Automatic annotation (TrEMBL):
<dbReference type="InterPro" id="IPR026992">
    <property type="entry name" value="DIOX_N"/>
</dbReference>
<comment type="similarity">
    <text>Belongs to the iron/ascorbate-dependent oxidoreductase family.</text>
</comment>
<dbReference type="GO" id="GO:0009805">
    <property type="term" value="P:coumarin biosynthetic process"/>
</dbReference>
<keyword id="KW-0847">Vitamin C</keyword>
<dbReference type="GO" id="GO:0051213">
    <property type="term" value="F:dioxygenase activity"/>
</dbReference>
<feature type="domain" description="Fe2OG dioxygenase">
    <location>
        <begin position="205"/>
        <end position="311"/>
    </location>
</feature>
<dbReference type="GO" id="GO:0031418">
    <property type="term" value="F:L-ascorbic acid binding"/>
</dbReference>
<dbReference type="Pfam" id="PF14226">
    <property type="entry name" value="DIOX_N"/>
</dbReference>
<protein>
    <recommendedName>
        <fullName>Fe2OG dioxygenase domain-containing protein</fullName>
    </recommendedName>
</protein>
<dbReference type="GO" id="GO:0046872">
    <property type="term" value="F:metal ion binding"/>
</dbReference>
<keyword id="KW-0223">Dioxygenase</keyword>
<dbReference type="Pfam" id="PF03171">
    <property type="entry name" value="2OG-FeII_Oxy"/>
</dbReference>
<keyword id="KW-0560">Oxidoreductase</keyword>
<keyword id="KW-0408">Iron</keyword>
<dbReference type="InterPro" id="IPR050295">
    <property type="entry name" value="Plant_2OG-oxidoreductases"/>
</dbReference>
<dbReference type="InterPro" id="IPR005123">
    <property type="entry name" value="Oxoglu/Fe-dep_dioxygenase_dom"/>
</dbReference>
<dbReference type="InterPro" id="IPR027443">
    <property type="entry name" value="IPNS-like_sf"/>
</dbReference>
Length: 364
């Protein structure tokens, strides 16, 4: 029999404070979405009719080391300058490894609540288990539970990360980091800067792996898995399962609030790459940090596994001098990464609004 929540506070206590998450909420047997999860009409994906499936084929990274090197480089640059999203294959992880990642995510979120709350913030170093985005300040919560694992060394990862996933996630992180280094070298050169390992490592030195869990939802048309947002970091690598539900906005330069939504379909064996805010700032707007969101489903629970790479909090980030000289002005000011991160997590998801924190009056 479904548990009855007499108030929004009792729901919050059950889901957030007690650590049951959305998974625990669904496990009570609810037959309809609680009011705290019902999104405003304008945020509901299934009420939108302005989307289509992205039909751009994935980029074959194995061809970077062959006669088609320039063609692949051009594909990466074009995707980064336009949509800010693209998929890659032949990246270094087998189908079996990718399936193991998905299975590991399901294994963790299937644990009893008392096992998962061992990883709530402040309990276990380098690991955070929670729900939604910033549940403490959200009037409407997102239909998602999340496990976040910070990386400092292989030794610490194997010591602190959950046993259900630590080994396969560590291998995924290593492959993702190599992919991002190769892509970053291409993008840095395209901006007119000499390739330098220290520059690239400076921009991707902080690494975090999330496991997102979207339980099957009784009313998916009313909810959202993740609201409209752009990623905070430099580059994100994402594994999505076969269910899908990821949507990316094609920006309209003249009307930022407009733009078509593209669904990024799951491709077996592919990883999704997307640009983050820091790389948009660094490139003075040449590279796009795309707005994206995730819908929920009623059929079965969905998982996705992003790797976020960014500079350390003590670094300052601003447009490269080469780009300012080329463009004639800076569209973004220099900001401390820590300040940008603090501002980002101080607000609910609201599209690309966090970029306003770094914009200059010269920026559109």
């Amino acid at each position: 029999m479904a548990q009855i929540f007499n108030s929004s506070n009792s729901l919050y206590d059950f889901v957030v404070r007690d650590g049951n998450g959305v998974k625990g909420l669904v496990d009570t047997g609810i037959s309809e979405v609680p009011e705290r999860y019902i999104q405003p009409l304008q945020e509901r994906i299934m009420n939108q009719h302005d989307s289509r499936v992205c039909d751009v084929p994935p980029i074959d990274l194995s061809k970077l080391n062959g006669p088609e090197h320039k063609k692949v480089v051009d594909e990466i640059v074009r995707a980064t300058e336009t949509l800010g999203f693209f998929q890659v294959v032949n990246h270094g992880m087998s189908l079996e490894q990718l399936e193991s990642l998905k299975e590991a995510a399901h294994a963790f979120f299937s644990l009893p609540t008392e096992k998962k709350i061992m990883y709530r913030p402040g309990v276990t170093p380098m690991v955070k288990y929670g729900t939604s985005f910033v549940a403490d300040i959200e009037k409407v919560m997102e239909w998602k539970d999340v496990l976040s694992m910070s990386y400092s060394s292989d030794e610490d990862a194997l010591k602190y990360w959950p046993n259900q996933c630590k080994e396969v996630v560590l291998e995924y992180l290593k492959v993702s980091s190599k992919i991002v280094r190769d892509i970053m070298e291409i993008l840095i050169v395209n901006l007119g800067v000499e390739p330098d390992d220290s520059i690239v490592e400076h921009l991707i030195g902080v690494k975090t792996v999330n496991m997102n869990y979207y339980p099957a939802c009784p009313n998916p048309e009313l909810t959202i898995g993740v609201g409209r947002h752009s990623d905070i970091g430099t580059i994100t690598v994402l594994l999505q399962d076969g269910i899908g539900g990821l949507y990316v906005k094609v920006e309209d330069d003249n009307h930022a609030e407009n733009g078509e939504w593209l669904e990024i379909p799951p491709i077996p064996g592919a990883l999704v790459i997307n640009i983050g805010d820091i790389l948009q700032i660094l490139s003075n707007g040449k590279y796009r940090s795309p707005e994206h969101r995730v819908k929920t489903t009623s059929s079965q629970s969905r998982v996705s596994i992003p790797v976020f790479l960014m500079p350390t909090l003590t670094e300052k980030i601003g447009p490269l001098a080469e780009m300012v000289k080329k463009d004639g002005l800076a569209h973004y000011k220099e900001v401390l990464v820590k300040d940008y991160v603090t501002n980002y997590f101080a607000h609910v998801h609201a599209g690309k609004k966090p970029l306003d924190f770094a914009r200059t009056f010269n920026s559109a």
